[in-house]
Amino acid sequence: MLSRLWTSSSQHKHQHQLILALLLLLHPFSATAQTGPNITLGSTLSAQGNNPALWALSPAGDFAFGFIPLQPDRFLLAIWFAKITTNLTVVWSANGAQPVQTGSKASLTSNGRLSLQDHNGQEIWSPGVGGVAYATMLDAGDLALMSSDGTGYAWHSFEHPTDTILPTQVMKKGGLLSSRSSSSAGDYSLGRFQLRLLPDGNLCLNTIASPTDHPYEAYWLTKGTLGTGSYLVFNQSSGIQEVQENSSRVNVTYANIGSPEDYYQRATLDPDGVFRHYTHPKPGAGNESYLDSWSVADFIPENICSAVIVEKGGSGACGFNSYCQFASNQKTCLCPERYTNVDPTDISKGCMPDFAEPRCDAYDSADFVLTTMPNTNWTNTAYEWLSPMVEDQCRQSCLEDCRCMMAISKDGDCLKKAMPLSGGRVDLAYGGKALFKIPRVDTSAPPPGLSRGRKSPPVIISAMLGCSAFVNILLISAIALLFLSSHHRKRSPRAQIDSRTVGDHLQAFGYPTLEEATRKFGEILGQGAFGTVYKGVLTLREAQALVAVKKLDKLARDGEKEFRAEMNAIGRTHHKNLVQLLGFCDEGPHRLLVYEFMSNGSLASYLLGENRPSWDQRVQIAFGVARGLSYLHEECSSQIIHCDIKPENILLDDCFTARISDFGLAKLLMREQTRTQTDIRGTKGYVAPEWFKKKAITAKVDVYSFGVMLLEIVCCRKNIAPEFGSDVRVILTDWAYDCYSEKRLDILVERDEEAMSNRRMLERLVAVALWCIQEEPSMRPSMKKVTQMLEGAVEVPVPPAPTSLISSMY
């Protein structure tokens, strides 16, 4: 039996090697490209095409060296795992910070010098040694330049790692790994995290003051465990080890993976600052169904969010003004309310406020409020430490201080801090509160992008003082005519808008203007309960911009009332997770709304598209919708209930940030009003049970709809799926609880590997969703509590079984 098994495995390996050989024969190499392990003098390899171009292949076929395409017309000279074909895994690169274009080439010159030149012939990289006899790709994954004098290596990649070390690789004192700047595909530039073996024999992890190499204080250190003359070695049987002067070994990472011959291994300093030891089944190892999956065997530090120290400089794990949340061995970088990512493509670069910082010469504490973030801290040094001081006093002190942008209230102490804030993190054991200063909801200032480009008459008149008298007369005459024309339009009944209702923060458009902007309403973006949305182009801030124009064509009975509700609700709101209203048209029977354009469409089409969105993207979308709803329910000057939360009403901007739309058509509750009864609104499958029971309608109807949608985001499917027939899966809300209670979330997400690799987050999201869809509204958490549970700021209790009315509706 064992003989048959061995023969089968051997045959499989030979078949794989044969297929690989055939692929190599078919691959379009340059005329002098190598297909074996050695690169001879005079050989060149050109960067071209859409597939990896091999220059050398290790004898066993496990590692390849050559060009890989990063994006259209950008190439990396690199070493990678040759047999892992679905997800290309690079272990070393020559030009990560400077990818080259088509026509670039790598060459081993006749005088024994390896060089990478761009398409203009300029040298981009060279190891800086000459007298090389040949280059060879070793089975360990090491690219070696062999000396022509027979003394061994003139240079080899194992002594010059980038972000990864491999089994048998040794790191001597002074050795260094640098993380990539981000995990984005195609970005191999240096990041701000380092792993170093210091001259004193200590192994440390630290951040740097990028773009320099100045190191900040270590956030992980093996102080006291290393001896003089120590080095680091990757032992393929047990993990990364430190070897001391007396030859004793201490494990840095540990991996119990069975037979090392059956697994590929690597240890990588990842872009998030965590040093992880990965394993991957080799072809023919009996694990063919999992060939495209790397697993984490071990990692350091235990919690990157709480590890990074900022007392002596640096921004922390997530960048300035951001905060770090660690769950399921993964960190998430988040922005506080009213803060946005500096670089939406790289959330680890920190956050910036979407409002102007207070000026002490024109500061009014009444313009600001403090939001509370429990169990959250920014660890940079406080400029003022007040003690003893209770929370209410701390709030007042920060509000009255123009410099204070955030205060920490904990154990009777008040620590006031200024921007930039660093070392932000969520820690459930912390017990303190971060009190974050943000502007009050502005009911008079124009939204960003509309009025800043328009100069007020005093500014225009001031500019006129430097002109000639004749030009001044002409300009004054023109302004007078414009003023009279504007005054006349305001007196016209068709154009008159009640300033108390609309305010000065929206731009009024004429119907012909919007008709022209939309090319006579020629391109439909979508249709909703109250009208149709069209794509248009308008001039805003002296530049053309895409807009979405909503034509309200179903307001026959209560049209004006609904329109004014839209004006009040949307015009006074401003949040990064809401679609911004830019303007309106109210001419006779024509009522239209002008919104900012969302380039990535609706969440519905994104979730159910050809390619499943990544788990991280779905989590961030869920967080964004929760924050937006929390703002509508609890932070607006008057509470807004949406009444129709569903994926079609969640739009995605350029950066796939979730933005809630259509909330202006919901019933606006006055400040003193907490409950209302009205006709059923919403969409089947998302409607809370109280609509059908004629019970009082509160903000909990949105909580219910969010819970349904959260399950859809987790599972990438519709709540009600008729294609399942009488199967238990037909109603997602019912099936989800069964899977949760039976601890079979793998079935619920259809074995989504990304979701299952972050199982704690998956369990949390499902549990929160199940709390949201409880039949009794009082059992559902508020959206503020939902947001805190999602972000890990508060614990999520085990939810009871929800009762759904969906089955009875069909």
Concise account of the structure shown:
It catalyses: L-seryl-[protein] + ATP = O-phospho-L-seryl-[protein] + ADP + H(+); L-threonyl-[protein] + ATP = O-phospho-L-threonyl-[protein] + ADP + H(+). With 810 residues, this protein is of the alpha+beta class.
Structural description of this entry:
By secondary structure, this protein is α+β, with helices and mostly antiparallel strands. The strands form 11 sheets. A 6-stranded mixed beta sheet has the order 36-40-41-39-38-37. A 5-stranded antiparallel beta sheet has the order 29-35-32-33-31, covered by helices on one side. Helix 10 (615-634) packs antiparallel against helix 16 and helix 11 runs antiparallel to helix 15. The longest helix is centred in the N-terminal third of the chain and has 25 residues, at 2-26. The two termini are 56 Å apart.
